[in-house]
Design goal:
Layout lengths: L2 H37 L6 E6 L21 E2 L2 E2 H18 L3 E5 L11 E8 L10 E4 L7 H17 L9 H4 L19 E8 L3 H9 L1 H18 L2
Parallel strand pairs: 1-4, 1-5, 5-7
Antiparallel strand pairs: 2-3, 6-7
Helix pairs in contact: 2-6, 3-6
Bound molecules: zinc ion (ZN).
Length: 234
């Protein structure tokens, strides 16, 4: 190949390469735009409330690790019963304020999409003196929306329940399986702001008594936090 023919060949390669590059990059930009539009096509806010551990025994193969995780228990008091009660009450408060709510079990729909997803649990510990609530946003969220949702629930739960905060948030929380859309199909979509709430320790006498006797106050704390988040993100 002469130097002249070779340089002509290189120029053609650059032109063809540039064309392929621009063609491959256009569809990606379009699908991102379409994705962010279809969340807000409906003006009614839409929230998913997950009852922690509900129906875990029937989790699909990809979530087989949760099949035997029935949650904390002390005497006849179970985390599942408390999460069910507070979750249903949270959903009722949200519905009364015009929010569309899905109450979800441990296995959520594939690629679940909503304006907010909140998982409700209660904690247990070998030491009865350990107490307090915890809230964490998803660490898989590429935006700061999940942290904003978590902060809003945290502030409202603290203010409305008067319960102290437990600061030992673990990776079980911020890497919660239902947030992990990179690993599981039965997880939230990458654009769904997500948080998990540990409403208090059922192994702590004061927390347990509060959760059993004032579930509506706990639900109000969570619901007000979600509503404040929805209002700020609109
Ligand atoms: Zn739990």
């Amino acid at each position: 190949m002469s130097p002249k023919v070779f340089s002509g060949f290189v120029i053609i390669l650059i032109i063809v390469g540039g064309f392929i590059w621009s063609r491959d990059n256009k569809p990606a930009a379009q699908s991102v735009a379409a994705d962010s539009i279809d969340i807000h096509t409906d003006n009614t806010p839409h929230v998913g409330i997950q009852i922690g551990h509900l129906d875990a025994a029937n989790a699909p193969e990809e979530l087989k690790n949760i099949r035997y995780d029935f949650g904390a228990q002390v005497g006849s008091v179970t985390e599942l019963a408390i999460a069910t009660d507070i979750g249903n009450k949270t959903a009722a408060i949200l519905k009364s304020k015009g929010v569309k709510v899905d109450v979800l079990p441990a296995t959520i729909p594939i690629g679940y999409k909503a304006d907010a997803f909140v998982s409700i649990h209660a904690d247990g510990n070998d030491f009865s003196y350990v107490s307090g609530y915890k809230v964490s946003g998803s660490s898989f969220d590429q935006t700061d929306n999940s942290d904003q949702l978590a902060t809003s629930i945290n502030e409202n739960y603290k203010k409305i329940t008067g319960m102290g905060e437990n600061l030992t948030v673990t990776d079980d929380m911020f890497e919660y399986y239902a947030f992990n859309y990179l690993k599981f199909q039965h997880a939230v979509s990458s654009t769904t702001p997500s948080a998990i709430v540990e409403t208090g320790y059922i192994t702590n006498p004061a927390n347990r008594s509060f959760l059993l006797n004032h579930p509506n106050t706990a639900a109000e704390g969570i619901a007000e936090g979600i509503i404040a988040f929805l209002n700020s993100s609109r």
